[in-house]
Amino acid sequence: MASSGGMDWSEVLERLGGDEELWKELATIFLESSPDRMPQMEQAMPEQDLLGVEKAAHAIT
User: Fold this and answer.
1) Cα 47 from chain centroid?
2) CA–CA separation, 60 and 28 (whole Å)
3) pLDDT tens across 33-46, in order?
4) What is the number of domains present in the chain?
5) Residues 3/30, Cβ–Cβ less than 8 Å
């Protein structure tokens, strides 16, 4: 996988032991749950609320 948008996808895959199915499953989970958290992150960023951004980002499951 190529690097895109600051992410080295080959490194991500390597960290998952080369398990492409796991990578697809994790990406799907992220995409399905992130819309619930994006408003929280979008509100916290202009306020420079780093803790709020961190909490919202880490709550994505």
Assistant:
1) 21
2) 12
3) 788 788 888 888 88
4) 1
5) no
How many Å apart are CA 58 and CA 35, to the nearest integer? 13
Sign of the torsion angle spanned by Cα atoms 12, 13, 17, 22 = positive
Q: Look at residue 45 and tell me if it is in a domain.
A: yes
What would the two tokens of residue 25 be?
């499953």
> Residue 60 belongs to what domain range?
28-61
Q: What's the pLDDT tens digit per position in 18-37?
A: 999 999 998 888 888 788 78
Query: Is a pLDDT exceeding 80 seen at residue 49?
Result: yes
Close Cβ partners of 58 (under 8 Å, ≥ 6 residues apart): none
